[in-house]
Each structure stands twice: as C-alpha cells, then as structure tokens.
Design a protein that fits this description.
Number of domains: 2
Number of strands: 7
Strand content: 15-25%
Structural class: alpha+beta
Helix content: 25-40%
Strand order of the largest sheet: 2-6-5-4
Largest sheet: 4 strands, mixed
Shape: elongated
Radius of gyration: 22 Å
C-alpha cells in the first residue's frame, strides 16, 4: 500500500480529488502524523526484533528510533550472532530487596531485566555489562522513517488503513474548524480513530495464542 492510495481515498471523501483545497504534500504530512499517533496509541503496530549491543553498566536504552520496549529475549554474545541464555523479566523491587548493590555487579551474560512503564525507552539489565558490552535480542516498537513521497510504501499493515484515514480526515477538517460543521466532522473522525485502535487491541488480545493456550489448558 502506497501513500498515494490512502491520499486518493482521503481526497475522495473530502470531495477534492484534484487536490485544490488540500495539497498532496499537506495530506502526506497528515499521513505521517497519523502513522506516528497510531504507534503511540498502539505500540505493537510497528515492531522489530533484532540484536542490539548494550552499553556498560545496568541502565540501557532502545535504539534512536525506538519508542517502547516489548521484550528482552535472549543473549546474543559478543558478536551479536551467537544465541545464548534467555533473559527473564524481574521486578526491580525484587532485585533491590535481594541485592541492594546489584547495580555494581558485572557480567557479559544478562540474566534479568527490569522495566518501568514510565520510561518506555529505557530498561535495566542484571548483571551490569562490562566495559566491552555484549548483545541481546530485543523486541521493541519503533517510529519508521517519515514518508517523503506519495510513492513511498506505508510502513503499517493494511489493517490500520481505516485508522489512518480517520486521523487524516480529522486533521483535514480541523483546517476549517471555524466552521461548526467541519469541526464536528473532525471530532467524529478523531473519535473513530481512537475507538478503532482500542477495539483492534481487544480483538488481538482475545485471539492471542497465549490466551487460547491458557483456555485449552484450563
């Protein structure tokens, strides 16, 4: 799906197929905003799993484009290509209680990680990494590069097309928000955008293999 495919649909709804009132470049900007807002509200809309080199110490951060940590999966050795020990999530309070000095420990092999939702781009590893740190495999959500041309491919799945349309239409109608009719249409579309993302998240949770496995095993 290219950016132009979505832009054309938006123009059709706006009754502006020639792009006189809303230029392609303007709508492309709205599309970039829609993509980013979708990821903020539903981080798993844009994810990647890759080996990432840690830094010395316990405190770690996602790569520059990362938005929110999903999982620290396993150790990947000093070269980033050697699968090793799994890494388990542990509450920081548990580590604090068992070893108040755990931030001073050091080992290239990570055993645990802690995560605080208030700092979605950061996490801590135990033991801390030495001066020459190793790699771990991370799963995380990220912001893709912005679209710069209408021929660029949209980096989200087709299931998000309706959400992107609603957000773009909301932004377009906000351009004439002094008109009560347009203002109401903007509100309607932004509500549809947020509700659709919330509904999709619930459906995915219901159909998750993890949920199904627990149900079968009950």
């Amino acid at each position: 799906m290219q950016a132009q495919d979505i832009i054309t649909k938006v123009q059709g709804i706006l009754l502006d197929s020639s792009g006189d009132r809303w230029l392609d470049t303007e709508l492309l900007g709205y599309l970039n905003m829609a993509i980013k807002q979708t990821i903020i509200l539903k981080p798993d809309a844009s994810t990647k799993t890759e080996a990432v080199q840690l830094v010395s110490g316990t405190r770690q951060s996602l790569p520059a484009t990362g938005y929110q940590l999903i999982d620290v999966i396993r150790n990947m050795g000093a070269d980033g290509n050697t699968p090793g020990r799994i890494v388990r999530l542990l509450r920081r309070q548990t580590l604090d209680n068992s070893d108040p000095d755990w931030h001073t420990t050091e080992n290239a092999v990570v055993q645990h990680y802690t995560y605080d939702e208030r700092e979605p781009r950061n996490f801590y590893v135990y033991p801390g990494q030495p001066a020459t740190p190793s790699y771990v495999e991370l799963g995380y959500s990220y912001f893709p590069a912005e679209l710069t041309a209408t021929t660029d491919s949209v980096p989200l799945g087709a299931e998000y097309e309706g959400c992107l349309l609603d957000y773009m239409l909301a932004r377009a109608f906000m351009k004439d928000a002094d008109n009560p009719s347009y203002q109401q249409r903007a509100i309607t579309h932004i509500n549809s955008f947020t509700q659709a993302l919330g509904a999709q998240d619930k459906v995915e949770q219901i159909n998750s293999p993890n949920i199904i496995e627990r149900t079968i095993g009950a």
